[in-house]
């Protein structure tokens, strides 16, 4: 006995007959025991790989949908805020009410914009984790998803940064 047979690995499944996730730190096309982000997202077959690749494409395209929804919300909220009555020419008693209404609307707009931002940051880091499987098939699916998502949802310039956040 070499002393390694009974080592604790912090909850890792060490059953000898169960398939393990293959974690690569170098680029590969190999899909043997490929796990995508979670241990439960384990690719066992060609059909499973195809389904997973389609899922990655849809997830990545969804990111473009969230980005476009965020841009549209920002544009519509700016238009709404510009339509609110200004302080000029109003009675003194109604100024207080209008100021409170504009302040409340501004806070609500900022809260929704912050929520969109948080969702985008979370989503982009999740896509980064997909890419960091270092599997060429997954990387291609991410790129295809970005392409499909931009075609389907991208109404603005593609020059915006594609950084993780």
- Summarize model confidence as the mean pLDDT: 81
Number of distinct beta strands: 2
Beta-strand fraction estimate: under 5%
Main sheet attributes: strand count, strand direction, barrel closure: 2 strands, antiparallel
Strand order of the largest sheet: 1-2
Runs with pLDDT <50, length 5+? 1-15, 89-93
Shape: elongated
Q: State the share of residues found in helices, binned by percent.
A: 55-70%
Q: Count helical runs.
A: 3
Gyration radius, rounded: 24 Å
Query: Structural class of the secondary elements?
Result: mainly alpha
Rounded to the nearest angstrom, the distance between the terminal CA atoms is 49 Å
Order of helices and strands: EEHHH
How would you explain this protein's 3D organization?
Helix 1 runs antiparallel to helix 2 and helix 1 packs parallel to helix 3. With 165 residues, the chain is an all-alpha fold. Helix content is 58%, strand content 2%. The chain contains three helices and two strands. It starts with 33 loop residues before the first strand and ends in a 12-residue tail after the last helix. The protein is elongated and about 65 Å long.
Secondary structure elements and pairings:
Elements: E1 34-35, E2 42-43, H1 46-83, H2 92-131, H3 136-153
Antiparallel strand pairs: 1-2
Helix pairs in contact: 1-2, 1-3
Give a brief rundown of this model.
It contains 3 helices and 2 strands. With 165 residues, it is mainly alpha-helical.
């Amino acid at each position: 006995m070499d002393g390694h047979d009974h080592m604790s690995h912090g909850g890792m499944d060490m059953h000898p007959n169960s398939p393990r996730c293959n974690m690569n730190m170098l680029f590969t096309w190999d899909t043997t025991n490929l796990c995508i982000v979670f241990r439960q997202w384990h690719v066992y077959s060609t059909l499973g790989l195809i389904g997973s690749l389609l899922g990655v494409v849809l997830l990545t395209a969804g990111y473009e949908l969230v980005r476009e929804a965020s841009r549209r919300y920002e544009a519509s909220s700016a238009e709404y805020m510009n339509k609110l009555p200004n302080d000029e020419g109003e009675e003194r008693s109604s100024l207080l009410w209008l100021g409170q209404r504009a302040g409340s609307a501004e806070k609500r707009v900022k809260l929704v914009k912050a929520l969109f931002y948080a969702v985008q940051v979370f989503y982009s880091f999740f896509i980064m984790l997909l890419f960091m499987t270092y599997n060429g098939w997954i990387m291609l699916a991410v790129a295809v998803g970005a392409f499909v998502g931009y075609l389907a949802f991208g109404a603005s310039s593609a020059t915006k940064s594609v950084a993780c956040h």
